[in-house]
Target: Glyoxalase-like domain-containing protein
Amino acid sequence: MRMDHVSYACDPDGLTATTERIAAALGVKAVRGGIHPRFGTRNMIIPLTARHYIEVVEVLDHPASDKAPFGQAVRARSSAGGGWMGWCVEVEDLSPFEARLGRSAVPGNRKFPDGRELVWQQIGIKGLIADPQVPYLLKWEGDPALHPSQAEPGTVSLASLTIAGSAERVTEWLGECVDKPLEDVAVEWIAPHGTPGIMSVTFDTARGPVTV
Model:
C-alpha cells in the first residue's frame, strides 16, 4: 500500500490551461496523457519523484462520463470550479477492498500514441464522491515502465497534503493505518468547514516549497 498520485479536476478554462498553470508554478513541463474510454475523461500528467505524479483530468461530453463514477466525480468537481478531487493509493491486491465494499473493481485503460496501453483496476470512487477525504485505490497491471510517473524524469517531489477530515476516518476506510501509504508524505489534518477533502498540496521544487 503506497501513495500513488493526486488528482486535480480542471478549472473552467479547460485541461490544457489548468495543467500549464500548475506546471508553471512548479517550474516543470507537463506530459500529455490520453483518453480514458471507460470513464469518459482525459488527462495530462506531471511526473514527480518517488513514483508519484499529478493527474489533471477533464470530463468529456461522452455517455461514459454520465455512467462511470470516475466521470461523475470529475464532472462534479469541475462544475464546482475545479480543484483537487482526491488522492489515490496503489495496492498489490484489491480483493480485500472488494470484499469490504461489496463490489468489484473496475478496469481502466488509456492508449499511448505508439499503441502501447496503460491498464489498471480501481475501486473506491463512489466512496470518494460520498466523502472526498478518503482515497480511491488501484492496482497497476502490465509494464511497470508505463507508470505515469515514468513519462519524464521527475524533479519535483510531493511533500505534504492538507486534508479536511480525520486520520481515524481514513484509517477506517482503508482497513489499515493511514500512515502506511503516507509514510513518505506529511499530512496536516484540519477540521472540515463544509465538504471534506484535499485543501492543498505542497511540493518541493527547485524554487523551494510551492503550495497548490
About this structure: The mean pLDDT is 93.
